[in-house]
Amino acid sequence: MVQTSEDIRLLNEKISHASGFVSRINDELSKVIVGQQAMIERLLIGLLSNGHVLLEGVPGLAKTLAIKSLSQSVNAGFNRIQFTPDLLPADVIGTMIYNQSKNEFYVRKGPVFSNFVLADEINRAPAKVQSALLEAMQERQVTIGDTTYKLSEPFLVLATQNPIEQEGTYPLPEAQVDRFMLKVVVDYPAKAEEQLIIRQNTLGLSAPAINPVASTSEILTAKELVRQVYLDEKVENYILDIVFATRYPEKYNLQKLKPLIGFGGSPRASINLALAAKAYAFLNNRAYVIPEDVRGVCKDVLRHRIGLTYEAEAENVSVEQVINEILREVNVP
């Protein structure tokens, strides 16, 4: 659908009015989280574009705290699942339980029936438990026995994983990781930020309370507006060029990447890159996507969708380096 400049101006006004909750959420989260603005921004992008988020980082970087605080700032349901090797699928989605006195079965719903689901250390659970999340994440429904139950909206799976341990962990297969819209690598805070963290945690003061400052109706309205954000055909083609360069690098003057990439991004990568760019534009109070929006979310959308070869590993080439090379070479509209 072609949008006129007047349509975009009216949409811009709607976005300015509807995005007020974003600054309120940021203010609440800043009470307990120092720095990590990029991580919080990615969590909001996932929330606004209906996409699940995987946070990866060493312990102690406030991954769990950020997710829990975000759920508290939105007046919505929150459940945390601590993944362990002995977890069963029924512990996640629920199960049928027999009531002896009534001589009948009834459904006990699992913790996945909530608006925000924190899958803490998701790579500690075996494959059958990880796959139990697949239907919920992709179809937004759960089947228990013969009955299928729709999950409430908004529904967001926010998972964390620890990249430094191998013992007692089960790496997520590509099909599972691909269900996450964004894979966010959480880095260490800056020195000044860590100094503030030390002060906050050594004064013996109780942690500030996070107040609910956004309603589910506000979130659902914002999600509708994100879908309406204007994506010009030139920016669309830019997204396609980036994704196609991960599949056929030789066509984009990137012959040196050909032996390093085992497989590139699927159409899901293109869809999620467009949606994430729209949400990024919304967070910046814009009714249209610019190339910088695409570049801003590109690594988080693509880093878990590009498979590197053994040759790349032997040469210590990372996915981030491959994406940087692609962004340098693909023409910006």
Q: Short description, anyone?
A:
This protein has 333 residues and is α/β, with parallel strands linked by helices. Helix content is 46%, strand content 17%.
Domains (count) = 2
The number of distinct β-strands equals 13
pLDDT averaged residue by residue? 86
CATH homology superfamily of the largest domain: P-loop containing nucleotide triphosphate hydrolases
H and E order: HHHEHEEHEEEHEEEHEHEHHEHHEHH
For the termini, the CA-CA separation is 20 Å
The largest β sheet comes out as:
5 strands, parallel
Shape: globular
Total number of helices: 14
> How helix-rich are the residues, as a percent range?
40-55%
CATH topology-level fold name of the largest domain: Rossmann fold
Radius of gyration: 21 Å
Summarize the structure in words:
β4 and β5 form a beta hairpin. The protein is an alpha/beta fold. It is built from 14 helices and 13 strands. It has helices spanning 5-18, 20-29, 37-48, 63-73, 89-93, 127-139, 174-177, 191-202, 216-228, 233-247, 267-283, 291-302, 310-314, 319-329; strands at residues 52-56, 74-75, 78-82, 94-99, 104-109, 116-120, 141-144, 147-150, 156-161, 180-185, 214-215, 261-263, 307-308. The longest helix has 17 residues, at 267-283. It folds into two domains: 5-221, Rossmann fold (3-Layer(aba) Sandwich); 230-329, Helicase, Ruva Protein, domain 3. The model has no long low-confidence stretch (mean pLDDT 86).
